[in-house]
Amino acid sequence: MKQRIKGLHLEPLWWGLFSAGGVCFAVLVPSVVLVFGLLWPLGVVDVSFTTLQSWYQSLWGLVFTAVVISLPAFHAAHRIRHGLHDMKIGYGGSTTAFVCYGSAMVVTALGVIAWWSA
Amino acid sequence: MTQPRTCYVDISRYDPERGDQYPTMQRVQVPYDDSTSVLDVLQYVKEQVDSSLSYRWSCRMAICGSCGVMVNGIPKLGCKDFVRDYVAHKGVGRDHAANDAPALTIEPLAHFTGERDLVVNMDEFLTHLEAVKPYIIDPASRPNNPSAATHSQTPAQLARYQQFANCINCGLCYAACPQFGLNPEFVGPAAIALAHRYNLDSRDHGKHERMQVLNTHDGVWSCTFVGFCSDVCPKGVDPAAAVNQGKVESAKSMLIQLFKGSSIGDSRS
Ligand code: SF4
Ligand code: FES
What we know:
The structure holds two protein chains of two kinds.
Chain A: H1 2-5, H2 11-39, H3 49-57, H4 59-86, H5 95-116
Chain B: E1 5-13, E2 24-32, H1 38-49, E3 68-71, E4 74-77, H2 84-87, E5 104-107, E6 114-116, E7 119-120, H3 123-131, H4 155-161, H5 172-176, H6 178-182, H7 189-199, H8 207-214, H9 228-232, H10 239-260
Parallel strand pairs in B: 1-5
Antiparallel strand pairs in B: 1-2, 3-4, 3-5, 6-7
Helix pairs in contact in B: 3-7, 7-10
Bound molecules: iron/sulfur cluster (SF4) and FE2/S2 (inorganic) cluster.
The site of FE2/S2 (inorganic) cluster has 13 residues of chain B, from loops.
């Protein structure tokens, strides 16, 4: 076991979530804003609330939570943590990692709870 | 004969042997034309104004990598950077001596320890280069193995790493990297690009040795993808691409270790 984890650290995990979240941030979040923030209220996209609700209650709702809420939250957390590091805030310590990724985890948990209770 | 155009230049001066506590700026008026490089300016100053000025140079053609300085805060090769590009925006052909604001400020490379005037301690960079074993590692081709095949390579195999092999070790990317400025233990752009160059070489078998260095916090993971290293690189090496491809490699290497259960240094892949 010792050999297995020797020299390993969590940075690749955060970076992986950051990269995946970056793609979601760039592609999916703007399209969601476009569809639900603009086209839907304008009546261009015509879906009934009940259709949307049943869609959200299915597994697709969980996928939506992951790619539109959770991954972008981890992307932002990683950026903010490195931004703080650049400003020498919490330099070298794990407090900023705890706060940033912790917040992203809380956001993720809230998203899952919202989906579960929908 | 028209009068040569002149401009003012500020040069950072520092000589601890003379008792200098801090670097100071020396303002000089220098002649220039369209072909005057920053290195030509320094040579003019040393020959005509102040022979005590120290700076490094050799090839004058962007090959040796020894003439790196900060020009107006940006890392540049002195021999590849021209005065005309700094004065042009103030009006072509005007005599800038009339306005004694300096067109150029020349300082030693940022993030390195200044030794004297524009000369910095390059050992800080070279130790990082050495750490990544920038040479072909192939146990089968040691001199004591007469049966070893010669190293042949196809053009396609060469193309995989060629871009990263163009580095001239000038150190401009280290002066550009804010992470190296914050943490001098960071292996840094050129060394990671060089490690990547050998990892991509079909003749090499030393990747697992280099990954031990790249996998650490001070390896590829110190990079926050600022990308300024690639902007300032005079040879188009694109070290930022090497660092970020290195992150993918490092993530793979760590995953493999986690599943195979052997430490990175022990894996013989
Ligand atoms: S990667 Fe480019 S900037 Fe960095 S040392 Fe090599 S040639 Fe210079
Ligand atoms: S003098 Fe050789 S690179 Fe400038």
